[in-house]
Amino acid sequence: MRGIKILGTGTYMPDTVASNDWFSTILDTNDEWIYSRTGIRERRISEDKPNWYMAVEAANAAIKDSGIDPAEIDLVLAATCSPDYFYPALSCIVQNRTGASGAAAFDINSACTGFINALDTASRFLEDSDYRNVLIVASERLAPHCDYTDRSASILFGDGAGAAVITRNDKPMWSYLSAKGDFFSALWCKVDHSRSNCPLLKPDALPEGLLDTEAKTHTLQMNGKAVYKFAVDAMETAVHKVLERSGLGMEDIDLYIPHQANARIIESAVKALGLPQDKVYVNLEKHGNTSSACIPTCLAELRQAGKIQDGMTVCLVGFGAGLTSGAIVFNQ
Ligand code: UT7
Predict the structure, then answer these.
(1) pLDDT at 193
(2) Where are the domains of the chain?
(3) Which class would CATH give 174-184+219-331?
């Protein structure tokens, strides 16, 4: 049996608020356009705290909330697409700073679908009796990767971290994971190799479909319309597929937690699926899109408000660069 139970959750949000009005001081945009097209009013930007710092804060909060000893954590998974270091893995820094010294650790990068893929991975480890508890942390510092001259992309993203400690449950869970590499060029951020001092290096060959320039290297590039279209369809498909696997109906789900990319994407998918709006949790007005951190941040907020209780059936659904998508249904 592959069930999971959330023992604790935690979150970290940087202090600095970047409001829509602030964006209107640096770009040709305004609160009315941003809010009506995205549902976002503000997001946080980490001015000086690195990604690992945010991840560790969220992870320690989740461990405290779980009530377990860090020594009882057997695996640390970090989901991120904006690490501070190529290596070591973010999860190794988290392992060090949380005292989970007996745990294995590795990272998962599937951008905004990161927490879904990490939770699915964790559940498969927990099927093995050697693994008692898994710490999952999803943390993103996207500000250094965003192009703040690009008004259609930079206004969407925020920094932050969310974490969860999970253990085995004797109730079932189901998942559906997908990747459509055909669409990799819809959302990408290229590593900057231009600072190498190797005299033999020439400019990188790029996969067909990517048009790189020096200005674009190391900044997030997005075809907003293509991602939007994919996202609505991916959310619908992932929910249908996971429910089909579970044998449950839409009405059997107590709570839906979608990836927080754009309120219009969520509304369109919710309408197409025929979900009751009051079962769908949305918090992007305050945080924007924090990529992999969106879903665990929602989980932490709901848990803190006492809205996730034992016995509830929860559906998580996400999508992101890759283009990847997936959904998980679990019974808490
Ligand atoms: O985790 C996944 C991450 N990515 C996403 O979820 C992105 C999904 N896509 C979207 O959310 C939307 O496509 C955007 C919010 C990026 C753009 O919204 P849209 O309704 O698709 O706008 P558009 O691209 O069709 O642009 C409409 C107009 C354009 O002006 P013209 O050409 O009609 O004169 C844009 O230049 O809106 C303009 N525009 C803006 N105007 C004011 C684009 N961004 C802005 C802005 N402020 N921030």
Answers:
(1) 86
(2) 3-170, 174-184+219-331
(3) alpha beta
Closest-lying ligand 1 atom to the alpha carbon of residue 34: 48
Q: Which structure tokens are listed for 261? A: 């990319």
Angle at Cα 295 formed by Cα 126 and Cα 88, nearest 5°? 65
User: pLDDT tens for residues 247-266?
Assistant: 999 999 999 999 999 999 99
Q: Among all chains, which residue has been given the structure tokens 């075809």?
A: 223
- For the ranges 1-5, 109-113, 230-234, which has the lowest average pLDDT? 1-5
pLDDT at 220 exceeding the cut of 90: yes
If one residue of 36, 112, 152, 187 were mutated to test the ligand 1 pocket, choosing by the most ligand atoms within 8 A of its CB, it would be 152
* Euclidean distance between the first and the last CA atom of the chain, given in angstroms as a whole number: 14
Active site annotation includes 259: yes
**Are 169 and 329 a contacting pair, CB within 8 Å?**
no
CB atoms within 10 A of CB 169: 19
CATH class given for the domain over 3-170: alpha beta
pTM for this prediction: 0.96
| Distance between CA atoms of residues 295 and 313, nearest Å | 15
